Amino acid sequence: MIFSPSIANVLNFKVNVLDRHSQVVYGSSQQADVFLSTKRNMGFGEQNGDLSAVNIPINFINDTDVADTNSIKNSLI
């Protein structure tokens, strides 16, 4: 399935990308008991914004770790 990108325009405020567990809030907001553990590509994997240039590098990553980060959610709520 191919979805068109969502566009949020409120007055003069434009939102291009809403990433993992992100919000657009116009007012007060409170988050309780939130846990988010993800691995992201912070290099050339994302093009954020309008008219962003596309760069396609060729590389190889040898990651022999079985688990990079073991994360556990501890909550008192």
Written overview of the protein:
- The chain is low in regular secondary structure.
- The protein has a domain at 1-27.
- Helix content is 0%, strand content 8%.
- A two-stranded antiparallel sheet has the order 1-2.
- The protein is flat and about 50 Å long.
- The mean pLDDT is 72.
Compact overview of the structure:
The chain is low in regular secondary structure. It has strands spanning about 10, 15. The protein has a two-stranded antiparallel ribbon with strand order 1-2.
Largest sheet: 2 strands, antiparallel
Number of strands: 2
Give the CA-CA distance, first to last residue: 38 Å
Strand content: 5-15%
Mean pLDDT across all amino acids? 72
Unreliable runs: none
How does the helix and strand content classify structurally?
Answer: little secondary structure
How are the strands ordered across the major sheet?
1-2
Radius of gyration: 18 Å
Q: Assign an overall shape.
A: flat
Order of SSEs: EE
Helix coverage percent:
under 10%
Number of helices: 0
Write the layout of secondary structure elements.
Layout: E1 8-10, E2 13-15
Antiparallel strand pairs: 1-2
Give me some keywords for this one.
little secondary structure; 8% strand; 0% helix; single chain; 77 residues; two-stranded antiparallel ribbon
